[in-house]
Amino acid sequence: MSSESMTAVQPDDVPRTDPPPAADETTMLRSFVDFYRATIRRQCAGLTAEQLRTPHPPSTMTLAGMLKHLAYVEDVWFSVRLRGNDPAPPWDTVDWSADRDWDWNSALTDTPEQLTALFDDAVAASERILDEVVAGGLDQEVVRRPGHARHGGAVTLRWILVHMVEEYSRHAGHADLLREALDGATDL
What we know:
Layout: H1 25-44, H2 49-52, H3 63-82, H4 102-106, H5 112-133, H6 157-183
Helix pairs in contact: 1-6, 3-5, 3-6
């Protein structure tokens, strides 16, 4: 998907392919990540900037924040952790100690076009990285280990892909609730 406005693109315009029922492990994991990426895109498609910024109380979570957060997650796990690169813009200048939820909070001032472009660019960068490294196998370890205790041991590409399925599926469930609360849409 290009960086078109989310309001110009409707949910049915966002292609989504079911993961294959049988495939090698790499294909299966990448297919599930792709499926959930498309699910998030579909949940945001056709919404106005105001709708993307609307929480469903008591939560403060928004679809705008979710798009930006998932763009950040893509960069952190594939580019920074797996490849050892520095964070890409805008993550490279964020003062996370001033606002640990900067990705969620700053999204409220971004346009749908900016959010879509950021998300799509992050996904495209992750896909390029995966295409480059996948021949090395799923057991290859990250170059930069996460700094917190939850990830104390070696983290592999397999772990990252499983984690991305978990991250996206969790937020896809949130997106289902947010979208239904916004306009009644279900089964996206």
